[in-house]
Amino acid sequence: xxVYELIDxxxxxxxxxxxxxxxxxxxxxxxxxxxxxxxxKNAIDDDRTGYTHSKGIPKLRESIxxxxxxxxxxVIVTVGGKFPIYSAMACNCGKTTxxxxxxxxxxxxxxxxxxxxxxxxxxxxxxxxxxxxxxGKTDMIAINYPNNPTGITISGDTYRELSDMSKDRDxxxxxxxxxxxxxxxxxxxxxxxxxxxxxxxxxxxxxxxTGYRIGYAIxxxxxxxxxxxxxxxTTTSPTEFAQYAALxxxxxxxEASVRISRFYEKRMKEAVSLLSDAGFEVVPSxxxxxxxxxxxxxxxxxxxxxxKEGVSVLPGSPFGPYERHFRISLVTDKMEExxxxxxxxxxxxx
Length: 350
Hints:
7-stranded mixed sheet; alpha/beta; globular; 41% helix; 11 helices; Aspartate Aminotransferase, domain 1; Aspartate Aminotransferase, domain 2; 350 residues
């Protein structure tokens, strides 16, 4: 069963009235800030409900460019963060190297586009830190920090190492930075380095704007043009009123970042303590609302048995060869109850 089939099964169970503690999806349980809701309403009242330029409205591109200290020509507003990732991977005619565990959408996208790819696997023993020296011949390296599913970040020295590798070996760095503003520690960005990169972010996680479907990409004008062509041929343009709401979101990004980071860091520490006491191996997250614990058993069996107990998690296999791991999203205030049920099921499968 694929990750999307499992989520669909969980969603149907909930729709049928099953009482579930949902730890399976990356949907923040904080509401969209009131200022953004108001901006959304105002934009609709102002009839901001039509097509826009396929690269997004100029004011939003200007604000994103200012935030990242790049020229406006190097920015495109997209329909969510997944779209530019798909576009970048589809446009890469060579090999892509993934750093695992990675978001399950990456290999699915590469398989769907018929792309050639390999992977470098990290381990819980190394704190999920990658060894980039192990990367062979490739044309693109896809990274995601803070990471989904582990929440781990990498250092500025590691970004510099990637940048040097990009220049020396003519490699594009596809950097998924959707969770950067949810980091619990100081974190870097590939945009701070002089190399061939495609940086992707979105408004979904920091502002709980998952349903707005607004993201963006920063790259060279050549790469931006390729993503723009994909957008023109598929979605045409991002939703207009959502882009105006995103403008307001950027005005409060520092405040929102501090608030959401503190909120989920507190939950992360509580969950790590509960999981450790319950017999799970777990590396504390450095950002995001995810943890990737390990059990001494099969996580697919664990996830299905746990679902019968009313708790939904994702097994580790969608993220790579991690059959003993499972991912949880810290998007509930019922973690103590959830971990109690996890401990019961863990004892059954180990």
